[in-house]
């Protein structure tokens, strides 16, 4: 049995690509390998952005201090890499949201036995592809239904702090494992971070390849 722990934030486009590539790596290794994937929440902004969510582009050109040329280069780099994974990501329209609510919804889905691969994929798609505000209770309700959750339960989560401690604990545990950027894949005492292909991830899970 092989266990890999993945830290990711739904806000991170590279994490969606990593999610897809890890799935391909697990399939490459085959069912006989018995790979167990443990998904952990990572928060790019642990306390969440304040106020109404601007687009990532707006945030980059104002509070992040990027210039237009730098933003365009990053935007195209993300879009090109995503296309290679069959994903459509246009960072211009992605909302710079507080990701804690959707991470709490993913924890609820996990607790209710939802398919974690599907749940994370749908959450990534909602924010990065469809440019939805995944901190909005109405959006979370629709996502929860897509995960197979009772809509009333998703509504109740939006009105509470349910699973907030679990999400916070995941984020704190990242530092304990030496995770400084996402996506991050931890297998035993080895950490692999950043954009990685399926072959490299398969080698990592087999005890080969680079560390970090």
Automatic annotation (TrEMBL):
Gene3D superfamilies: Glutaredoxin (3.40.30.10). Residues 3-196 form the DSBA-like thioredoxin domain. GO terms for molecular function: isomerase activity. Keywords: Isomerase. Coiled coil: none annotated. InterPro entries: DSBA-like_thioredoxin_dom (IPR001853), Thioredoxin-like_sf (IPR036249). SUPFAM superfamilies: Thioredoxin-like (SSF52833). This is DsbA family dithiol-disulfide isomerase.
């Amino acid at each position: 049995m092989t266990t890999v722990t993945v830290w990711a934030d739904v806000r991170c486009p590279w994490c969606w690509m990593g999610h897809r590539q890890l799935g391909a790596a697990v399939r490459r290794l085959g069912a006989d390998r018995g790979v167990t994937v443990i998904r952990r929440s990572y928060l790019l902004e642990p306390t969440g952005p304040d106020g109404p969510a601007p687009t990532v582009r707006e945030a980059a050109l104002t509070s992040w201090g990027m210039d237009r040329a730098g933003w365009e280069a990053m935007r195209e780099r993300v879009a090109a890499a995503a296309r290679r994974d069959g994903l459509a990501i246009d960072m211009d329209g992605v909302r710079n949201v507080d990701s804690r609510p959707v991470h709490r919804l993913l924890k609820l889905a996990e607790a209710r036995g939802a398919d974690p691969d599907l749940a994370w994929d749908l959450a990534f798609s909602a924010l990065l592809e469809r440019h939805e505000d995944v901190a909005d209770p109405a959006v979370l309700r629709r996502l929860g239904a897509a995960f197979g959750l009772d809509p009333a339960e998703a509504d109740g989560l939006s009105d509470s702090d349910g699973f907030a401690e679990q999400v916070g604990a995941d984020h704190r545990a990242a530092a304990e494992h030496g995770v400084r950027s996402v996506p991050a894949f931890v297998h035993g005492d080895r950490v692999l971070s950043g954009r990685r292909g399926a072959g490299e991830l398969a080698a990592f899970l087999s005890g080969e390849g680079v560390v970090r």
